[in-house]
Amino acid sequence: MDDLLKMLAAIYQIGNENREILRGQVDPRDDEAVYFLGLMERATVFAGDLVNIVTHTRTGSFTSVYILGRCIMDDFITMEYVLRSDDRKETVLEINSDAMRQNLQKVEDLVSLNEKVFEGKFPYYPTTEFMADVRVKFFSRDDSGKYLLEGSSAATLKFKKNSNMSEMAVAAGRKTDDSIGRAYFFWRLWSDYVHFAPLTFGMEMENQKDMATVYKNLQELFLHLYQIIRKALVFFIKGIGYKPVESGLWRLF
């Protein structure tokens, strides 16, 4: 475990040192660069949080680690899908568009609940009139065309859609090694820990009796986290000639 924590601390430091410099070099209008910087930022945050969770756990349970692990594998598979797509910029736009669509749908679900249950009078939920105004404002944005399909209107807002996780794993897996398949295995496994059920929680407790396998899985998780940061750095090295911070920590990998 001491070796795993050293690895995790090194991942955090590598990500943190470089993200602070890249923040000042990335054009906020460059969707592709913003995507990879965001991945690095998020991976660095995950590394820092995992250090604290693993170091200070009082129960001996790795539930929180597995839940974060699911997010990390999600990012890794999606990143590989973007890197291997025929049009990376368009794929990033599709990812962002799909996120916008889902967030809009969440708010509209609140509108529906407000209308059906509270007759549109619940003060903390949006109304139909409010959402109509939101739609008009989004459609009027200068950049809305990047995210919408042709034929969209303020009333319809037909967003571009992204592939689901299994589709991305299949597509990316055709062009890379078996790391995608391995990441997808863990993504499926750790998805069970996001929503509680006695079955999956019991499985977790049973699996932790085999600590040698737990440590191997953690090592694999941390290496995937490192790969996210490394490949994001490669993107900036090739794209803008970025020179990563020189650090003896690289020797750990």
Terminal-residue CA separation: 16 Å
* Fraction in beta strands: under 5%
Count of β-strands: 0
Shape: globular
How many helical stretches? Answer: 9
Mean pLDDT: 91
Oligomer: single chain
Biggest sheet architecture: none
Spell the H/E element sequence.
HHHHHHHHH
Query: Radius of gyration from the CA trace?
Result: 21 Å
Contiguous low-pLDDT stretches (5 residues minimum) are none
Q: How many domain units?
A: 2
Explain this structure to me?
This protein is mainly alpha-helical and 253 residues long. 68% of the residues lie in helices and 0% in strands. Helix 1 (2-22) packs parallel to helix 9 (211-240).
Based on the model shown, name its key terms.
253 residues; 2 domains; 9 helices; globular
Outline of the structure:
With 253 residues, the chain is an all-alpha fold. The protein has 9 helices and no strands. The protein has 2 domains: 2-84 and 176-252; 90-146, no CATH class.
Question: Could you give the topology of this structure?
Answer:
Layout lengths: L1 H21 L8 H26 L6 H21 L4 H31 L9 H12 L25 H9 L5 H13 L6 H10 L3 H30 L13
Helix pairs in contact: 1-2, 1-9, 2-3, 2-9, 3-6, 3-7, 3-9, 6-7
